[in-house]
C-alpha cells in the first residue's frame, strides 16, 4: 500500500502485496523441511531402502500461512468486479470453506485443526485465479517465477545429493523431494510459455525439460514421468512449428526421447538393478484404482453432496484407516462435497472451454 499525494488515501499496491504473500508461502514451505528427520527402512528382500520425511510445523508457520492467505484475500476483494454467476460461486465456496473449518475446529479444537495438513480455508487460494487475470498482478507475480523455479530445482538437487551421499539410492515416499519437484514443474509452465512466445528456446529450456524427466525417474513417479515426457514432446513440437519444420523436428524429438529412454534403462538395469526393478514394478502394479471402489463401497450417495468433513476416513485394504485418495476431485468431494469440488474446478474448466471455443491453442 502507498499514500496517494492527490487524495491523501492509502492506495493498494496489489502486485507488491501478492509478491510478498508468495514469498512468505515459499519461505515457510522451505523452512518447514529444514532439519526434518529422515525415516529409512531397509527391505528384507533386497538392498533397496525406503526413505521418507515429513515437514515440521509450528505456530509461527501457521500464522505466516494465514497472513499470506489474508494478503491474497485483501487483493481479491479490493480489486475485483464479478458477474452474478461468479459472485454466487465465490459466495458458496466461502460459505462451505468456513462451515467445514468450523466443523473441523469443533471436532479437533482450534490448535489441532491448524496443525492439520489440509485446512479447508486454504482452498480459498483459488481466488488467485481471478487475481491473476489482471495484467498488473500477473506481471508482478511472473517477475518472481524464474527465481522461484531456480530455488525449487536447487532445493531438489541439494536434498537428493545430500541424501544420496550418505545413504545411496532409495525409494522416496513422503519427502520434500516431491514437493520441490511438483512446485518447480508448476512454475516451469508459465516460464516455458513466455520463453516460447518470445522465441527464446535454447539450451536452458532443454536442460529444464531433461531435469523433469530425470527427476521423475529419481522419484519413481510414473505420473510425473508421463507428464515430463509429454511436456518435452509438446515443447519440441511448438519449437518446430515456430521454425516451420514441424514434421522433421517431431520425428527428431521422438527419436531423441526414445534414445534417452533406452540409454537410461540400460544404465539403471546395469548398475542399479534393484532400483530398476522397483521402477518396472511401479509401472506395472495397480496402486490406485482399488481406492475408488473402497471409498464408494463405504459411503452413501448423499454423503458426497456436502462431504463428510475434513477428518473423514475410509478403510483401505492396503493402508488401513485412510484419509486420502490420489485424485483431487474425489478427495475434495469425499471431504467437502461435490458442490465444493465443482466450484473449485469450474474456473479452470471454463477457461479451457472458452479458449477452445475462441479457437485458441491451450
Quaternary assembly? single chain
Strand and helix order? EEHEEHHHHHHEHHHHHHHEEHH
Distance between the termini: 35 Å
Unreliable stretches: 1-10
Question: Strand content of the residues, in percent?
Answer: 5-15%
- The general outline is globular
Summing up helix and strand content along with how strands pair, one would put the structural category as mainly alpha
Note the total helix count.
16
The share of residues in helices is 55-70%
Largest β sheet strand count, sense and barrel closure: 3 strands, mixed
Return Rg in Å: 23 Å
Mean pLDDT: 77
Commentary on this structure:
The protein is mostly helical and 362 residues long. It has helices at residues 14-33, 59-78, 84-108, 110-114, 128-131, 135-142, 145-167, 176-197, 203-219, 222-243, 246-271, 273-284, 289-297, 303-306, 328-336, 338-357; strands at residues 2-3, 10-11, 39-42, 49-52, 171-172, 314-316, 320-322. It has a 3-stranded mixed β-sheet, with no helix packed on it. α1 packs antiparallel against α2 (59-78) and α10 packs antiparallel against α11.
